Amino acid sequence: MWLPAWGLVSLALVATLTRPAVSLPADDLGLREFVVPIEGETAVSQTFVMTADGLRAVAVEPAALTAAPSGSLRFELTEEGSGVVRSGDVAAATLFATDSYTLEFAPIDDSKDGAFRLELMSSATDPARGIGVRATKGARYAGGAMQINGRDRWADLAFRVEAPGARSPWDRLMAMASPPPGVSSRSLVVTALALYWLVAGFVLRTIWRQPV
Question: Which residue segments constitute the domains of the chain, with CATH numbers given?
Answer without folding.
Answer: 2-19+169-208 (no CATH), 26-164 (2.60.120)
